[in-house]
Amino acid sequence: MMILNDNMLYDATIKRIKEKEINAEWALMESFEEIKNLFSQIEDKYISERVKDVENVVQRIMRNLVGDNKDDLEINEKSIIVAQELSPADTAGLDTKKVMGFITDGGGTTSHTAILARALELPAVMGLCSATKKIEDGNILIVDGDSGKVIVNPDDEDIIYYQEKKRQREKLRSFILKEANKPAITTDGHRVRVMANAELVEEVYILKEVGAEGIGLYRTEFQYLSRSNLPTEEELFQDYRKVAEIMSPHPVIIRTLDIGGDKFKDEFIKTNETNPALGLRAIRFCLKNPHIFKTQLKAILMASAYGNVQIMLPMISSLDEVLKTKSLLEEIKEELERENISYDPKIKVGIILEVPSSVMIVDILAKHVDFFSIGTNDLIQYTLAIDRTNKEVAYLYEPFHPSIIRMIKNLIEIADENNIPLSICGEMAGDPLCVPVLIGLGLRQLSMNSRMIPFIKKLIRSLSVEELKKDIEKIMKMDTSKQIRDYILNRMKELFPEIDAIGEYFYIQADRYGEKRKEQ
Ligand code: PEP
Ligand code: MG
Q1: What is the distance in angstroms between the CA of the first residue and the CA of the last residue of the chain?
Q2: What would the CATH number be for the domain defined by 184-477?
Q3: Would you call 67 exposed, middle or buried from its count of C-beta atoms within 10 A (0-12, 13-18, 19+)?
């Protein structure tokens, strides 16, 4: 803002336009040339390089002047981004050839920005409060996304340590990857289906290699967020068809547009909601904008002719939303028949259980859907009343809260009674400390961030359901999340006394919760 208001840039440009009667772009470039000249005469290298800051501002004004108001971040060399906030839309538009990681003052580990960072395989640390104040342009940084640590201007010892850690990690991963395609069967013969969550079509190519037995959650909103206009039916169809074909014969569960909340784009949602997480998000947005919803549903139906495609509806809070969507689907099916376009007439329609009201009426919903998936990211947010993106309350975000464990137990019982498949697709499913609890409670289908799949499969192969059931009996009698967490951590330490491949992950993940994130 200071550069923007500077006389040499602002006033001088206006003066040029008035006096020379040249266009604004030309006048701006002339002003910048003059500033550049001045900076080049400064001997101090640090100060003379500040011309880059002016250049950034000039480029931004120029983009606006020529009507190219894409808000993608423009990055010219390999960098780590340090920002107050990074929206999912910013993150989806990052050039991963140049961006090596990012750090933000705000945010939390289950925010959509963090989920995208994992999908893009970018190390990221969020919720660091004052990183933007403490870190300067040109600083050398180490971003340790495992432990949430950022080192500014590391010494040689740190650099050697982290280079070695990176090597070890890659070695460990390639070792575990070798057995990624073995099924996940517990020591006492229970088979668990392990599927992937995917956000971008590019991710899907490696899913079979990491041992994914299908896509349990294909998040579709980033295709809408990484551009300024709406994707067409044909673009969506081509995307979904590619995913269905790559994964075939495994299932691909396409979640309909979950826009709103922390994922929005001014072009689509213009309301200024004071509480977007409780606002016009996901199914609510889609039912209010049937033209957008119908385009997507039609593309999904068309793709269903090319693989095992299923539809999953987000943020369902009442039966009405399910019925309205099903009737829209019927309309589109008739349209496809009229147009002679093939689709799977028996396509399955399921919902994410992520709003407490739907958990309470799951027996009612069971009569109208083909499957359920528990979305613990939002279920925890809405049950514990904790904003996923708010760093001030991130320490309260607790998957082991007894209310969450009880909810999952009830859901498993009711889904069983109604003979409806139940899986889980929240971040809990890929958390090595939560997985034993989920398996012990009775879940047999998990969907997670693809990087974790080989590790979680290996972990499941060393668990016994009989033993876990005894643990669950004890856990169900506990009063606090801390008691549950400590208990599981100790049990895992007994099971894996040495910090081996899996062990390393336990401890890292275990340290992440329960404790308020310290500013490093
Ligand atoms: C969830 O809420 O658990 C979920 C899987 O969906 P998202 O994280 O995209 O809201
Ligand atoms: Mg959700």
Answers
A1: 29
A2: 3.20.20.60
A3: exposed
Round to whole Å and give the CA distance between 182 and 46. Answer: 56
Using alpha carbons, select from 107, 67, 110 the residue that is nearest to residue 90.
107
Q: What angle do CA 300, 306, 311 make, to 5 degrees?
A: 30
184-477: same fold as 79-156? no
Three-point CA angle 459, 378, 256, nearest 5°: 95
Model confidence pLDDT, tens digit, residues 147-168 = 889 999 999 999 999 998 888 8
- Domain boundaries along the sequence of the chain: 10-65, 79-156, 184-477, 481-520
Nearest CA to ligand 1 atom 8: 377
Quote the pLDDT of residue 271: 61
pLDDT tens string 373-402: 999 999 999 999 999 888 888 889 999 999
What does the DSSP 8-state code read for residue 74?
A: P
Q: What percent of the chain has pLDDT over 70?
A: 92
- Looking at domain 79-156, its CATH superfamily turns out to be Phosphohistidine domain (3.50.30.10)
Which DSSP letter does residue 419 get? T
Distance CA 394, CA 120 (A): 23
Active site residues: 112, 425
Tokens for 256, please give them: 């309909």
C-beta of residue 327 within 8 angstroms of C-beta of residue 291: no
Chain-centroid distance of CA 73 in Å reads 19
DSSP string for residues in 114-172? HHHHHHTT--EE---SSHHHH--TT--EEEETTTTEEEES--HHHHHHHHHHHHHHHHH
List residues near ligand 1 (CB under 6 A).
115, 217, 219, 258, 354, 375-378, 425-426
Burial of 481-502, coded b for 16+ CB within 10 Å and e otherwise, reads beebbebbbebbeebbeeeebb
360 Cα: distance to centroid of ligand 1 (angstroms): 19
Average pLDDT of the chain is 89
- The amino acid occupying position 331 is E
Residue nearest to atom 1 of ligand 1 (CA): 375
